[in-house]
Amino acid sequence: MSEMRHKAEAFxxxxxxxxxxxxxxxxxxxxxxxxxxxxxxxxxxxxxxRLWLTVYGVAGVILAEAFQSLMKAAP
Length: 75
Description:
By secondary structure, the protein is an all-alpha fold. It contains 2 helices and no strands.
């Protein structure tokens, strides 16, 4: 029985081992790519929040200046 097991283990040929190694490397690349995408999405969300905060700030300043000019013009 050990002789039969030895033959089965010896059957692991180089192309099959290369294919398994390639699949493992491909999975690692895919996982790293997905992690990078998740990080990029988080950064984009933060950037979007900052952008909207800036837009609201600029709009607030414009409205405040318009209100001040109206208050100065009206007695």
